[in-house]
Sequence to fold (307 residues):
Amino acid sequence: MSLGQRVSSDHQLARLLQIGVVLEEVVESRAAHHLDSLPPEERAAIDEEVRELLEEAADESADHRERLEALIDDLEADTVAYEEINALVDAQYGPPEDTDGVLYDQLANEETAYKFYDDLINAIEASDSEFAIERERLLETLYEIREEEKDGVEEVTEIMEHRA
Amino acid sequence: MNTADQYLKAIYLAQRIEDGPASTGTLADLLEVSPASVNEMIGKLEDRGLVDHEKYKGASLTDEGLGRAHDALQTYCIIERFLANVLEVEEYQDEARALESVIDDTVAERLDTIIDRPGECPDCFDPERDACERLEVGDGCAD
Fold:
């Protein structure tokens, strides 16, 4: 157990980015599942605003995942097959009971992703290590993704507030 | 998980290994730091009301310290299980130790939705093996 470790190697960085990919998979998979999992009458009752939110969230997560994967590729690290992770995420999916549940779940997903990128950025900034990818490119990508997650949190919160 | 939480987790495990207060030597071994560093941190944790320290006996967690150690160990357990069972990492213990300072409990909880942590966690953690007892690691790590 070594203490106070920061991101100190390409391998560790790749692993953390891989965890980011998995978190994005969770958002993507759950956002896509939410609509499909509701009974037809409830699905029809979900208004356009929530439908759009979920579709956007799924698209955005797919984009984030691809950007993270591009960074991982340049680190030349071993990665696991994402189809396997997707199957696991799908297997553990418990559908929310109603629209509020859908929104809360979406909010929790976006908040978690935001927190993860924020911690990762801090850990990278606290480290003097050099990586196989340019630090500037790495941090810029992560700043952008973190900002989009923040926007996502605000968007869900707004919808929840004016529905209340 | 910050350094203080990593210490609390180590004290929790050392108390289980020694079936009593955690000695400085055991903590120094577990944390791979010097006994002097352990003593310094124990003093800080004692000031914050998280640890009771008795000379020649060792450190014991207060109720508040115990709660935080419990959470820290759960987070570590989730990271270990996630690495071993989802990402199929062979050196999952080394990597979990390296990652625990960067993965916070909110993120660990979301990873937990994939690995399905057992209800008895972290009591099912084996301090001698430094791994969850429920974690079956063989060829390719199965759950």
Notes: Chain A touches chain B through 30 residues (CB under 8 Å). Helices of chain A lie at 10-37, 40-45, 48-75, 82-91, 99-125, 135-163. The longest helix of chain A spans residues 135-163. The two ends of chain A are 47 Å apart (CA to CA).
